[in-house]
Amino acid sequence: MEMEERVVPNWTVVAPNQTSVTEFILVGLSNDPGTQLVLFVVFLVVYLLTLAGNILIVVTIIHNQGLHTPMYFFLSNLSFIDVCHATVTVPKMLADFLSAAKTISFGGCVAQMFFLHLFACTEIFLLTVMAYDRYVAICNPLHYLTIMNHKVCLLLAGTIWLGGTVHSLALIGMTIKLPYCGPQKVDNFFCDVPPVIRLACTDTYVIEILIVSNSGLISVVCFVVLVVSYGIILVSLRKRFVEGRRKALSTCAAHLTVVTLFLGHCIFIYSRPSTSFSEDKVVSVFFTAVTPLLNPIIYTLRNEDMKQALNKLFGRKVTVEKK
């Protein structure tokens, strides 16, 4: 006797006993209404501060001619990426805090994964380029503007965006080819490759190895390159005068803080097989919501040039308003 086809809500029947998931359910950070309301307020404030801080950095750098240097060109790119990176996941998370049905369409899930990895990988490459920029500025100051000229900066910026796009397309290409026939629950507050492929109704061992060799390897290699670069910079600083050494150390310390916070998550999540740990959500919160907020704080509070430029920007605004 032939087996009857069963129509399951939110699934599309493709064959007897085989279905294709059309939407996923995001588990989120909490199911308690009171806790969700508190988290909504907290992350709304964090997100608004992230937008305000990073956009302010971009506007200040564009507005101040004295900041039209390679270092601040890359810093403005970093702030732009942080705005995009946070916007991929935080608005959806905020909406889910106020919603009983924390669902996301299959297409929406794929789009979230694509842009998440696009901006994350681009930021990793950008942090590496920023380390190279600091290396040239500190170790070869006389030829700095010749080496890091406008054309080279634009070429590097285009290259890192291209690299991020290729990386993201490769990951998404592997993910969407897998069959998804249930369950639908993504054990996180956003769609990411590791928790999504755990829902595939097939063996994903090969895909997991490819993810580790792709995302994990990029994270580890870039982290090693960054640590070595800053190690060389710190060694070269021993020959500098106290004031110049203090300023260079402050800049490098800011970069290293960002690198550790950002790449720490990538190495933790993507350098191991697709197994779920209780710490994953906490690490993901820092990765998607907190780190984009910390970047403007780190770069503005530890950078005298940025603080002076901000004072100048606000001072000019006050003058205009008085007139």
Structure report:
This protein has 323 residues and is mostly helical. 72% of the residues lie in helices and 6% in strands. The protein is globular, with a radius of gyration of 23 Å. The strands form two sheets. It has a three-stranded mixed sheet with strand order 4-3-5. A two-stranded antiparallel sheet has the order 1-2.
What's the helix and strand layout?
Layout: E1 11-15, E2 18-21, E3 23-26, H1 33-63, H2 70-97, E4 103-105, H3 106-139, H4 144-147, H5 150-176, E5 185-186, H6 193-197, H7 205-236, H8 242-270, H9 280-301, H10 304-322
Parallel strand pairs: 3-5
Antiparallel strand pairs: 1-2, 3-4
Summarize the structure.
This protein is mainly alpha-helical and 323 residues long. It has ten helices and five strands.
Q: Based on DSSP secondary structure assignment, what is the total number of beta strands? A: 5
Strand content: 5-15%
Q: Which segments are poorly predicted (pLDDT under 50) over 5 or more consecutive residues?
A: 1-19, 317-323
Largest sheet: 3 strands, mixed
What is the residue-mean pLDDT, rounded to a whole number?
82
What is the overall silhouette?
globular
SS content category: mainly alpha
Strand order of the largest sheet: 4-3-5
The radius of gyration over CA amounts to: 23 Å
Total helical elements:
10
Cα(first) to Cα(last) distance is: 87 Å
Assign a percent range to the helix content: over 70%
Multimer state: single chain
Order of helices and strands: EEEHHEHHHEHHHHH
Which key phrases capture this entry?
323 residues; three-stranded mixed beta sheet; 10 helices; 72% helix; globular; disordered N terminus
